[in-house]
Design goal:
The chain is of the alpha+beta class and 407 residues long. The longest helix has 44 residues. The protein is 56% helix and 15% strand. The radius of gyration is 33 Å and the shape is elongated.
Length: 407
């Protein structure tokens, strides 16, 4: 039988009983819509996570060294970090690890009061080495950044983030103004370019940076660092660099396996992978549920098609009497099942894309249309129709035409 004619006949048959056809489509439509929306939202979330990590770290072409071993959780601060990363460690990494281009260091602190006039806020405060903004790829929007001269002189100067500028200087130029950090006077010399939200949803711009020497000797009285960013000569060699840095720090800290390291060396890509793996597992579970819903839609198609075969026995008998073969009858009913499932799949894709756009508008995430998932959902809808339409089609093809005409 001609394929085009078979499809046309299937469409005419389905249009005669629209309610039943709609019910057959419904399960597949819901399942495919869920698959499309969940896959697209999951991809959008993954892309946004990577964007936020890059905004936080500035680049993926570095290696991160933090105090505390593998069991340490959360972002280290001066009050929570073990005092293990020292200036000598940073100098040794820069000099002895051949893959390293330069090392930037920081002291990080929370809950420190910053005042200007009658305004008082508690931003995150970083003591940074002069090369910190270069390694992170940060830009200065206004004024100047922290220089080597500032660090050598332990100057009381500060560079502030855009959100902190708005909080302290809503209507005036901050450059040259004096603020007080923990009651110590500092002069604002620059404003960082906005970076937006970090991976946890917190603002990356409600921050303040001062020279690390000033932080360690004039403000915090600490001689250890809460983090290092190691810029590599060849970013593709990050795994080897991690191995070399780990071996060097173990030697310097007197750590012999199986003793746990008192530091952690990782790459931003590995951090992103850990975060996205958690979301990926949840997405897979939800996609599994959506796939089950699609299969349930297939069961509905099979059940209603079996009822249709019983109701259309006389039609089958007439077609057999005028020359239709068992193969023709099998093809007709199988095509009906595939067509109704495919139409349900197309409707589900449209519904899923609409849901994706609504979710993007509600979450403020840029929509990410995963075309591979859409193509897979369309193919799955056809396969579901063929699979679950096979038994009704087989039963229709094996109807005795004589008995059918007598019924």
């Amino acid at each position: 039988m001609n394929i085009g004619r078979t499809i046309g006949l299937a469409l005419r048959t389905l249009s005669r009983n629209r309610l039943r056809s709609f019910l057959m489509m419904l399960g597949v439509m819901i399942g495919v819509a869920s698959l499309t929306a969940l896959a697209s939202v999951g991809e959008a979330t993954k892309q946004e996570t990577m964007r936020r990590f890059k905004r936080m770290l500035g680049t993926f072409d570095v290696v991160i060294v933090n105090p505390g071993g593998p069991s340490t959780r959360g972002m280290p601060s001066l009050t929570s970090a073990p005092p293990v990363l020292k200036q000598g460690d940073a100098e040794a990494i820069a000099k002895e690890v051949a893959l390293v281009k330069q090392v930037a260091v920081t002291q990080f602190a929370f809950d420190v009061d910053v005042k200007y006039g009658d305004r008082s806020v508690s931003p995150s405060i970083m003591g940074i080495s002069p090369n910190w903004t270069e390694v992170r790829g940060e830009e200065i929007a206004l004024g100047e950044g922290i220089t080597a001269a500032d660090n050598d002189a332990m100057a009381r100067v500060a560079v502030i983030g855009e959100d902190l500028r708005k909080a302290l200087f809503p209507a005036e130029d901050p450059i040259g103004r004096q603020i007080r950090i923990a009651d110590v006077p500092f002069q604002v010399k620059g404003v960082l370019a906005p970076r937006g939200m970090g991976p946890g949803g917190a603002s990356m711009d409600f921050t303040l940076a001062i020279p690390v020497a000033t932080a360690s000797r004039r403000l915090f009285n600490r001689d250890y660092y809460t983090g290092m960013m190691v810029q590599l000569r060849d970013p593709t060699q990050s795994d080897r660099a991690i191995t070399d840095i780990t071996a060097l720090l173990r030697e310097r800290h007197g750590i012999v396996p199986p003793a746990e390291d008192d530091f952690t060396v990782t790459s931003p890509k590995a951090q992103v992978a850990r975060v996205t793996d958690v979301g990926s597992t949840l997405s897979k579970v939800m996609l599994g549920v959506a796939a089950i819903a699609t299969l349930i839609g297939g069961v509905v198609i099979m059940s209603l098609m079996l009822i249709s075969v019983s109701e259309r026995r006389r039609e089958i008998g007439v077609r057999r009497a005028v020359g239709a073969s068992q193969r023709d009858i099998l093809a007709q009913f199988l095509t009906e099942a595939a067509v109704v499932s495919f139409i349900g799949g197309l409707a589900g894709i449209a519904l899923g894309l609409g849901g994706t756009l609504v979710a993007a508008a509600l979450t403020k995430l840029p929509p990410a249309i995963l075309w591979s998932a859409i193509g897979g959902a369309a193919l799955m809808s056809i396969l579901v129709g063929l699979l679950f339409g096979l038994q009704p089609a087989w039963r229709a093809a094996n109807v005795d035409p004589i008995q059918a005409l007598r019924s």
